[in-house]
Each structure stands twice: as C-alpha cells, then as structure tokens.
C-alpha cells in the first residue's frame, strides 16, 4: 500500500501566498518589538498595550508558521500507520495499526478508538465531499489490510 496524503485545509498554498504570509508575520512581530522598545514607560501604566503586543506577536508567529507550511492540516495513511494533524499549531499525531482497536466511520467524521481507551475524532467539512469519501475509502482499506474493525454508522436526524 502506498502512502496516501490528504489535505484537510480548504486553503491553497501557492509560493507567493506563503511569501506574503511570512512577510506579514515578520511585520507584525517587528511592530510588537517596536512598541515594546519605544513605549517602555507606557508599559508600566497601560495594561492594554500588553494585550496589543501579545496579539501582534501571536498573530505574527502564526503567519510565519503558516507561511512555512507548518500549519497545514492533513491525514496521511501509510501501510501500517496513520498520521493526523487536525490542529494547525500542534504537531501531527501518529497512530500505528497496533495502537488502533476500531474505527467508526460517520458521514461527517471518523472516530479512532485506541487500545489505550482514548478516542480521537476527525471532523470533516461539508465543502469537499469528494475528498471526504476518498479518505473514508482509504481508511477502510487501511482497516482491512491491518485487521482493524471498521464500521460505517449512519446518523439519523
């Protein structure tokens, strides 16, 4: 089985967009540093300035992180593992086939039940139904290949 990679982000990342994100992030961080260095006397009296500095720094860091391609959400299905990154800031989670007890497949999400009695849920969006179906098919193939119980569950309203 080949390694299958599916992006869970709805945003396309071209080279020019990534460069703009990095530049904008650096500008935000530079403005935050400028405010810290030139408004030292105001920092002691005005607490709202700290909120502005923290927001600009955090937003700038996220823009740089995103521009470097580290914030993309994805699922990667290999022959004996699944790597899942469902949060743009945190590191991807790697689940080996030996860690997974069963997989429930719903119309708009997947639930991985681990042998450590932990549940990991992946929620799909409603925009890219074709990609969702491809992911479900690959998860089903992965489960069959690794003898993991996988069950389709239809939700009724």
List keywords for this structure.
single chain; 157 residues; alpha+beta; 4-stranded mixed sheet; 4 helices; 43% helix; elongated
Can you offer a commentary on this structure?
- By secondary structure, this protein is α+β, with helices and mostly antiparallel strands.
- Helices cover 43% and strands 24% of the residues.
- It contains four helices and eight strands; from the N terminus they run βαααββββββαβ.
- It has helices at 15-38, 40-45, 48-67, 129-145, and strands at 4-7, 74-77, 81-85, 93-96, 100-105, 109-114, 119-123, 149-152.
- The strands form two sheets. A four-stranded antiparallel beta sheet has the order 1-2-3-4, with helices on one face. Strands 7-6-5-8 form a four-stranded mixed beta sheet, with helices on one face.
- Strand 2 (74-77) and strand 3 (81-85) form a beta hairpin.
- Helix 1 (15-38) packs antiparallel against helix 3.
- The protein is elongated, with a radius of gyration of 21 Å.
- The relative contact order is 0.15.
- The mean pLDDT is 88.
Query: Based on CA inertia axes, which overall geometry fits?
Result: elongated
Strand order of the largest sheet: 1-2-3-4
Q: Roughly how many Å is the radius of gyration?
A: 21 Å
Q: What string, H for helix and E for strand, traces the elements in order?
A: EHHHEEEEEEHE
> What is the strand tally?
8
Biggest β-sheet, characterized? Answer: 4 strands, antiparallel
**Into which percent range does the helicity of residues fall?**
40-55%
Q: Distance between the terminal alpha carbons, to the nearest Å?
A: 37 Å
The average pLDDT score comes to 88
> Number of DSSP helices?
4
């Amino acid at each position: 089985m080949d390694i299958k990679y599916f992006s869970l982000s709805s945003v396309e990342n071209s080279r020019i967009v990534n460069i703009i994100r990095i530049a904008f992030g650096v500008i935000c961080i530079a403005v935050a540093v400028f405010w810290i260095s030139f408004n030292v006397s105001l920092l002691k009296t005005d607490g709202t300035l700290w909120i502005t500095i923290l927001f600009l720094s955090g937003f700038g860091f996220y823009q740089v992180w995103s521009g470097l391609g580290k914030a993309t959400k994805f699922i990667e299905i290999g022959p004996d593992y699944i790597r899942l990154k469902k949060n743009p800031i945190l590191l991807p989670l790697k689940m080996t086939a030996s860690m997974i007890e069963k997989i429930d497949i719903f119309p708009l999400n997947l639930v991985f039940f681990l042998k450590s009695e932990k549940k990991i849920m992946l929620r799909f969006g409603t925009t890219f139904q074709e990609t969702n179906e491809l992911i479900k098919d690959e998860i089903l193939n992965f489960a069959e290949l690794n003898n993991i119980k996988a069950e389709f569950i239809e939700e009724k309203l």
